[in-house]
Amino acid sequence: MPILSSSYLVNKMKILAVLLFTLLWIMNQNVFAAGASIKPSKSAGEKRLEANVYFKEGQTLQEAGNFKAASKKYEKAVRADSKYAEAWSNLGYSYRKQGDLRKGVKAYKKAIKLDPNLAEAHEYLGEAYAEMGKFDLAEKELKILRALGSDEADELKEFIAKMKTK
After folding, report:
1. Which residues have C-beta within 8 Å of that of residue 92, sequence separation ≥ 6?
2. Distance (Å, rounded) from C-alpha 65 to C-alpha 108?
3. Which of 44, 83, 119, 157 is 20 to 30 A from 165 in CA distance terms?
4. pLDDT of 17-63, one tens digit each?
5. Contact 146, 113 (CB under 8 A)
6. Superfamily of 41-115 according to CATH
């Protein structure tokens, strides 16, 4: 039997190493494809738990009248869980209280799209419209609140009347 030379074996080992490296690299590309997350995505429940932490912090800041800081917390809440209607509504409220009616209206509409029966969002949207002088739209929200049988209807009615006298 012929004996193989050491240079022949070294060359074969190099080729084998390159093939092994290439195979491992290809396998790695399939597992971590471009744009794929290394971390597993969170479940809806995990997202809501994370969002609740920010939501509660936002409520505390809102109650203290710190609407700018509250809006930052609500923004984190809706980033954690984009389907959190109450967080969108409170985000709209904090924007509105900072004087940004346009952003407030946009957040209220998002909340209502997620939960059409969220009376608080309808009330606040109606108030924002009244502040903007869009009384026809404010009255539309008032009708929705009445159809929902919400106590917020009386509050919105009073707010609209107050804004009309200004």
Report:
1. 103, 104, 105, 106, 107, 108, 110, 111, 121, 124, 125, 128
2. 19
3. 119
4. 777 667 666 666 655 445 545 556 778 789 889 999 999 999 999 99
5. no
6. Tetratricopeptide repeat domain (1.25.40.10)
Distance CA 90, CA 76 (A): 12
Query: For residue range 75-115, what is the model confidence (pLDDT) as tens digits?
Result: 999 999 999 999 999 999 999 999 999 999 999 999 999 99
* Residue 46, token pair as written in the block: 């995990």
Question: DSSP characters for 63-109?
Answer: HTT-HHHHHHHHHHHHHH-TT-HHHHHHHHHHHHHTT-HHHHHHHHH
Per DSSP, 5 falls in state P
CA distance 93 to 103: 9
Indicate the domain borders of the chain.
41-115, 116-166
3-class DSSP assignment, residue 154: helix
